[in-house]
Amino acid sequence: MAVVKFLTLFSLPLFVRGQVPAPSYLYPGCVHTGCGTKSCPSGLRQHIRTYEDSGGNYCDAQDSLVCCPFQSRNAQWVPTKPTDGHHACPTSNPCPSQNQILVYADPRGPGGNVCLDPGPGSSYWYCEDQPVPNPVSSVGKYTYQGCYSDSSNAHALSGGSYTDYDKMTVDVCAQKAAAAGATYFGVEYYGECYWGNSISSSSKQQDASKCTSYCAGNQQQACGGLTGQIGLYVNPSNVVPKELSSYKTWSSQGCYSDSGDSRSLPNTYAAPSGTAMTVEVCCDAAAGFKYAAVEYGKECYYGNYLASTASKQSSGCNMQCAGSPSELCGGGNRVNLYLNSAYSQPATEKPSVGSFSSMGCYTDSSSARGLTAGSSKSSSMTVEQCVQLAAGHKYAAIEYGTECYWGDTLSSTSKQANGQCTIACGGDSKELCGDGNRMNVYINSDFTDPPTTPPTVGSFTYLGCFVDDPASRVLPNQNQDTSMTVERCITLATAGNAKYAGLENGNQCFFGTNLTASGSDGCTKACVGNSLETCGGSRRLAIYENKSYDPGHSTTTKSTTAPPSSTPISTMSSSTITTSTTTTTKPTPTVVSSVGSFSNQGCFFDQETPRVLVADSMDDSQMTVEKCVKFADDGSWRYAGVEFGSQCFVGNTLHGASGSSSSDCNQACPGNPAEVCGASNRIGIYQDSAWVDPTADQLADVLQEYNSTLVQVLDAIDNYKSHIQQLKDLRNQKKRGLDSRLAVRQSQTETILLQDITRDSQQMRFVTELLDKAARNGNHLFINAANNDVDRPTSPLVNSDSLSQLQEATQQASEVLSEVTEAAVDDAASIASAESSSPLLDLERDLGVAGGAVSTIGKAGVATGVGAATGIFLTIVTLFGIFHHGGGNTGGGTTTVPPPTSTTISITTSSTTTSSSSTCSPTQSPTPVIVLTTRDSTRNEFDTLLSQLKINDTTITNQIVYDSINFRAFAAELDDCDVGNLQGNKIVSTISRNIQGKAETSDDSSSTKRDSFVRGVVKDPGPILSSVEVDEGNYTMLGKRAIPDEFRNLYVASKLKDDIGDPYPFHLDWLTSPWAQRGLTGSYLGFEHYLFEQNANLPVNVRVYVLDTGAREDHWDIKDKIVTSYDATRLDQVVTGVTDKDNHGTCMSSCVGGVFAGVFKQANIVPIKFMETGNAPPTLLVALNAIALALKDKDESGVEAGVMSMSFGFEVKDLKVVDGQPENTVDPFADLLERVRDANIVAVASSGNEKSDDIFSNTPRKNGGADTAMIVVGAATHTSDKWEHSTFIDSSGKGILSIYAIGQYVVCAAKNEEYHYRREDGSSPATAQVAGIVAMYLAQGRTTVPNAKAYLLAEAARLKGTNWANDGAGAHPGPGPLRAGIGRQISCTGGSQATEPAFEIPDKQIFADEILSEAITEWDDVEPDCVIPMP
């Protein structure tokens, strides 16, 4: 909306500026002509006729004109308001719309005063719409920065100025500023121009609508505003942005990471059109919030909570703010973060208090309360206080900050009103306590609703409560059931075609067709199967009548045991039940083969007496096999049996079990009709394969396990109790005010103790899990050993007293531990939510709970005498004495349970971690490390760990998180205390120093530095695209005459055409040509060139992951082979599509599967870029990310197998993070390679190119060995000798080096142009070739991933023999490693000795014109000689 500027007839205008060439009562730019004027000057338009000339004189009967430069629209006269009989000049804009402006004020009246009494008639203002031009976005090197405040007393820009109220434009002002070399310029008030190199601190950004007044020289351009606003432009190249340290109540927190997938702050602010982003704009938009952040120059985010994924960064915030180039506004995935010191945490809804949990906000009314059982009012009301008042009731509600209401029924007039409870509690400003006629409602999960009587169930209607007499039953047919419900009884009555159904005493059902009874009350007892329903009472029968009862209904009589019941069923009627037969279409149920460790044993005959399983039973109208198995597992029973649809029987022995046909068990489970649940007198039996009848030693072992776990529990409670006591003592010292000089130290100590208590809460949760598991194991075995329902030659090892003692002891331990855990968790929550550094904790409660638990658990020791155990420990040690060394309940004696070393298992990470009340003091400065978490850890555990680290001010520099494959790692700066604590964390796999690796680079000299590619004259490749396609027209197929069937898909590899000759991939000949197959006997056709299969359909889909410098994806050799690619150097997001600045990665992909240079011509290649060049090797974190991306792609693509080619290494000695760690003990690749193997990927690694290195000193290759699946490849020459630079020394004795492939003078694709090739030496191309061979074997179905290494070596031994010379001093003992080969030789008869062909060293660079096919079409023309392989 345009801002109106008007001039009244005052002697001074509202905003003082330079002289405007028009009367003060005209709009600037307008002119007043003389009397009798017929037309306006050129460029101006007529607006109105007036009664005066430009000098204020009357024109008598002749009019004059007011002429303005803009088009007249919606013009109107507006009368002024009379004051004391006169028409006074208004003091504000009188126009009806603020989009209109004052053009002219009619000054008619006698005298010379500015504002006179017009006499008869009225005085008017003339108003019309103002044109709204837009600011120019850019002009020359300048861009529009926004609308800013200006003042004639203190201009925003003070370097220079220029005015032209007739011809001013933005372009004119820009030229003036550029000539002065100014960084900024600005325009305002139609014709004013200012410039300078800095903006005054008093100038602030304004609403964009205030800078929409047109320029005098171009009405389509905006020249700032008219009331002190300047449209500001900037030359960004002249400005060096800096971080704005503070603004109002906001202070900079530095540069933080951000991600589009996981924003650091949840809310986004989009500035209105015309307002460019600055730190000030973003902070103003985030007013009332805790954090604001600017990103990518123009984005603004805000919120009250910083995401756990956001971490402080040392670089990346380098972009100018769009609205203020002198300010930093983040960068790509980087934010400049600001903290609001005025932020006050708003009250929030407390989710739960004890058994009460929040239902949200509800309406209420003083005339019709939502809860009516009771109420209380207190100025110090809290949610906790109200819940305490409502104890025993179903609902509690807090209203208007101070009022509490409770009851068991929430009125239907109270409706949900989420978001409308905004008042803080009078006693706790952090909690929400309703609002006016609004209440926060809580529901009590411990509350049990009184049972009610269903008025109808199906066609049955409740008649009332009647007296019953056991001696003379009202209804004759009876069923007693431990799962009785009204619905269950109605089902039984319906099955018996009864008119009446009656429930009594909670668990009894009666039914019949006649009713004679007297009414009563007392039907209030809850059903045992559903506590919300009433099932009569003592001698009181709740009777239902079937309103659809048809006494003449046709029935089929079926003789069977009465419907499902629990054991014993002594009160069941023996009479036959008549049930109606109906025909419905149901799914055919099938037998569930297994549930967990329980497996189906078949269908068996059963009867009411005796049962096959007699230990216990249950009946459930929603029975499934899974429910019955769980019932057995919970009771530690060996067998579970389902029968008659809804019945479940359990036990440890099958009594008189006789097998029946499987088809006899055909009744569907009511809870899952797709499952079979036995049939009438037929039981489907399931047996637990994990069940054991334990020996005494096994019982002693579980007691030992429980005792050991209890020691850990006691240690954890002692630590918590100690920290609470220290905190209490410290606060008592503070209260006494002992020495003010200790205040700082006391505050630091308190912070440490609070961190310890938070960690204690996590530790308590952990030991709770351990103790629950140990208790379950112990109780299950003891129950098994105590059970009489076991066919054993002697009486049970455990009697009822011993079983009760263990169960009571474990239950008691669980209860006291739960109390301590609850207290510790409450403390941690209070610490986390507290705004002060000294949160309010109930220390007396904590000490009481912890002290009581310590006393109850007792002291570990012997059964009696000196050092005797106490508490729960005494029970355990006494039982242990009974069963130790094969005893039983007849044994005894004083026996000591040997307690384990007490080790507190902690997940804490701070350098200030305490253990047993001691504080670790770091001796090493924080070091960049990588923490890899275990595969079985969860995302929640990972986030918890990071949160804890951040609480302890640990710097998290980066993260790798791929939840789909459970892969998580992070980079941090940790000292030795941090590392020590993390090493005890159950979710931490390895902690390694984040070092740089070493790329395996080489050339044909003794240097290990790879040649840079030399560009030459590039020839036009001509029609090349079709010749690189893989088909019979471009790969010549061998002639078909007399060739065995297995070789009829063989093709001959192509050559490159260039000016020098026709280079051929010699390294491929070395793999298949007979002259190189020194292990073969017999005669073979002497092809000197590489033969390969071109199968139409490969049985196995395989991907080859090449971890290197990327790849030139449009190169002739590989462009049709690459299925996708990833950039692992981008840790912030998954980036597909890579380039190659180095050549190495392009070459490796070419060696794997290139059209010309590749081993496996049908390879699916996935280049993963994890370093830019060999001179800039990757960090460990990037290497981990590369492997993770391969695992992720394998998982998401669904391919059956994969191969990973790796040509890099990390010095193992440099990975250790703590001084004094033994060599070779820190290696994250040990874990990573297990993940690779388990993902069905073969790992292939280079041995290295430093002949004096030890293979065992570098990882990942050190993880190879004769007994591992990993393949480690060395480089051989074209004569099959070890290449002089290839690493071979192996101090491990494991036989790490697996095989050699040719690694000298290998020709492969080069990255500079799509038709360039190069020469490459080293173990890297050898490794890529072997990766291609393995991928080919897998794809052709010749082998599997677990057997790939063995198959590769077996083929190599068959083709090239095993008698290779040892590599020399330091090598693995015995013959040297095998040489790679591929079995594609064609047998023939006779033959002469093969000779090694002449070898020419290829050029370092080859500029190919095209790829040529080998001209072999008929045997008659070019049939090769029959040769015998070289010895």
List the helices and strands and how they pair.
Blueprint: E1 31-32, E2 45-50, E3 64-68, E4 76-79, E5 82-83, E6 86-87, E7 100-105, E8 124-129, E9 138-139, E10 142-149, E11 160-163, H1 170-179, E12 184-188, E13 192-196, E14 214-215, E15 218-222, E16 229-234, E17 246-247, E18 250-257, E19 267-269, H2 279-285, E20 291-295, E21 299-303, E22 312-313, E23 320-321, E24 324-328, E25 334-340, E26 352-353, E27 356-363, E28 374-377, H3 383-389, E29 395-399, E30 403-407, E31 424-425, E32 428-432, E33 438-444, E34 456-457, E35 460-467, E36 477-480, H4 486-495, E37 500-504, E38 508-512, E39 526-527, E40 530-534, E41 540-546, E42 556-557, E43 578-579, E44 594-595, E45 598-605, E46 616-619, H5 625-634, E47 639-643, E48 647-651, E49 668-669, E50 672-676, E51 682-688, H6 696-736, H7 743-786, H8 800-833, H9 843-857, H10 871-883, E52 914-915, E53 918-919, E54 927-933, H11 939-951, E55 955-962, E56 967-974, H12 976-983, E57 988-993, E58 998-999, E59 1050-1052, E60 1055-1057, H13 1066-1072, E61 1084-1085, E62 1091-1093, E63 1102-1108, E64 1126-1127, H14 1144-1153, E65 1165-1169, H15 1180-1197, ...
Parallel strand pairs: 63-65, 63-66, 64-65, 66-68, 68-70, 70-71, 71-74, 75-78
Antiparallel strand pairs: 1-3, 2-3, 4-8, 5-6, 7-8, 9-10, 10-16, 11-13, 12-13, 12-16, 14-15, 17-18, 18-22, 18-25, 19-21, 20-21, 20-25, 23-24, 26-27, 27-33, 28-30, 29-30, 29-33, 31-32, 34-35, 35-41, 36-38, 37-38, 37-41, 39-40, 42-43, 44-45, 45-51, 46-48, 47-48, 47-51, 49-50, 52-53, 54-56, 54-57, ...
Helix pairs in contact: 6-7, 6-8, 6-9, 6-10, 7-8, 8-9, 8-10, 14-17
